[in-house]
Amino acid sequence: MDNGKARILIIDEPSTAELAARALCGAGCVSETMHTADEALVALEQHRADVLLCGTHFNGTDGLELLRKVRVRRPEVPVVMLTGEPGVRGVVAAMRHGAFDCVSKPFDEEELLASVNRALEMNNLRRENRLLRQQLDVAATTAGFVGESAHTRQLLAMIRRVAPSRSTVLVEGESGTGKELVARMLHYWSNRADGPFVAVNCKAFAEGVVESELFGHEKGSFTGAIAARAGCFERASGGTLFLDEIGEAGSDFQAKLLRVLEDGEVLRVGASKPRRVDVRIVAATNRVLREEVRADRFRADLYFRLNVIPLRVPPLRERADDILPLARHFLAFHSSELGRAISLTPEAEEKLLGYAWPGNVRELENTIERAVVMSGADLLPPEAFAFEVFDRASGGRTEDGTATVAPSPPSRAQSLQACLDRAASECIRATLEETRGSRAEAAATLGIDRTTLYRLMKRLRLDA
What we know:
With about 475 residues, the protein is α/β, with parallel strands linked by helices.
């Protein structure tokens, strides 16, 4: 667009704006002059700006009021005020309202360029810090996607191959498999990593507000619209928009989403002109969208728009080689929060491997966290995990050796809550015996507050 040159927006009286533009162009910057506050705000919303030069009074406009609006709408853009007010009063007022710097008029060219350069240097430092934070996010995100199975290695290779492209991706998988994690990796490994990652839950949009949520609205466009608001497409412009639970989207949502994907433009509610958006779409669903299309619950044209690159996240039962690496990863994370080194016995590992994990990775993490909190031991035995074990011998196996067939549904007496309560009761009784009935010592051993222990004992009827 501008070959990487700094882009400066200038808003002031025409004579001052032209002088500043000539000085900045001579220094290798790209400048754009404008003469009304509305022009400046539209330009800031639609295009990248590295610095805004703003007069304190021009064409009947209050520059400090414009400064306040810019700090709200685009707080990352430094504003250098061009003040004609003598003394320090105008400078103090501008700085109090969030100006980066002030330059007095008539300005000295070197002073103006020095101020703009300082603003650009600050922007570069912010950008570098943001990139460093994102690199840490990438490392943390990748660490969360632990796995040694062939399925996981193939999925990671596909994510790396797909991430640099702009192609729309459809991520399918059961609940709890880590579909949002895949979406974040696609974003952080792309050239859009410096842009925003905006995640929205499609089934959370109520009918009647879909258009406003997707595209935004102008002030006064409907009752309650007390201020202009950007929709999720505008907020994600330059980055990635993650549409979670796309299979749950209603017909109104589907129709409006299709329109944006086809046109690449959004029209705010109450606006007269559309705005172009540059967004990479990643959609996710725990449904099989092909079947939803056959059942007339999902638009076929939208399905083909979304299903450019399909990625399937296998359930945990199809990648048994990932169970123990994931369990150890979650164990290290949750035990570090308690300041204790906790590990698994071989029997506990076997028990984890024997379970079919219908809730997938999310259930595994919850199970590990629960065991860490409830057990006072540094070595977790099988009894620390409260769930119905799937018998591999009777449950059957897939071709790659993972358990797939669950036993018959548990009776009400064997419900998950009953299993958890039974395990908690046994753990608390054993700890109280070890501490000779001292509840304070038992709570400390279990790693929980005394009030939590008292509440558990009362609920489990252990305080009699």
